[in-house]
Amino acid sequence: xxxxxxxxxxxxxxxxTNDRLFLLFGAAFALLMVERxxxxxxxxxxxxxxxxxxxxxxAFALFIAGSADKNRKARS
Length: 76
Hints:
0% strand; single chain; mainly alpha; elongated
């Protein structure tokens, strides 16, 4: 529930400012929300369980991409 709330805040800030950082952070938190829901809904002994963490990896990659994009724009 917290990830959904944070994602909605970032999406609202993105709509106000049109800054790509907020869009990427909102998408990352939405992915973290999906990852948590899937992780809770499947059994830990299920063979699919380790692949759920790829969603978390993608979310952290979005955090890094958003930060790098913001820092690159600031230097230009």
